[in-house]
Design brief:
about 150 residues, 5 strands, globular
Amino acid sequence: MFSDIFGPDLTCRVVEAVRKSVAAAKKLGTTDTWTEGNTTKAFIGVSAHSIDKHWHRKFAVLNCEVFNGRHTSDMIALKFDSMLEDWNIPKESYQVVLRDNALNTVRAFQQIAIPSLGCALHTLHLAIHYYIFDQRVVSDALAVCVVV
């Protein structure tokens, strides 16, 4: 834990500074869920992105935790809602949440009435993976290149 390494005073100051920055933001966005390939543990992370009145980009990771159980829309909505409550962030502060394109994630943000969009980079990654790397000729060519 952060406070174990840096002490409770520094932890409190950092959390308070992030709370002030998030509270000052007019609009925020994004979330992510993923599975770590080496451990097969699933995680959910939530970050806040905003631009201040001087057009400086602000960014903070608000939450990152192991996500046990099934990734249903109800569970994703519950986790996200809980994080908003922990940070005292009203739902109206989220202009848009960038998310993956999975139906459970789409439905989660519909359930809690927060606008969301599928991430363009995630969509591009899926397109490359499923429509290029899954082609037999591509996988054969890559296998030959790796061996040489």
